[in-house]
Write a structure and sequence with these properties.
Blueprint (H helix, E strand, L loop, with lengths): L1 H41 L1 H4 L3 H29 L8
Helix pairs in contact: 1-3
């Protein structure tokens, strides 16, 4: 019974950490989007010709950050019982 209660507690805490990781990703993407918007708004005469490069750059950043956040979550999930992470 105690083992089941511990697993249930750990999975609830893991869901909480997942929300934090997703929140971090949303915050990163929104801040980067705002910065890119400000750069494009100020330099549109020059940047308009190379807009596709901005799209590729921002796409790569978002993909890399998403992979990183997913790996953090996966690492927490893999090691949460091993290191007694939530005790």
């Amino acid at each position: 019974m105690n083992n089941h209660a511990m697993k249930s507690k750990y999975h609830r805490k893991l869901n909480g950490d997942t929300v934090l990781v997703v929140g971090m990703l949303v915050l990163l993407v929104s801040v980067e989007g705002f910065i890119i918007y400000k750069i494009l708004a100020e330099t549109w005469e020059i940047a308009g010709n190379f807009f596709y490069l901005y799209v590729i750059f921002v796409g790569l950043i978002i993909i890399i950050e998403t992979i990183g956040c997913l790996r953090v979550r996966e690492s927490i999930k893999n090691h949460m019982f091993e290191f007694k992470y939530y005790d």
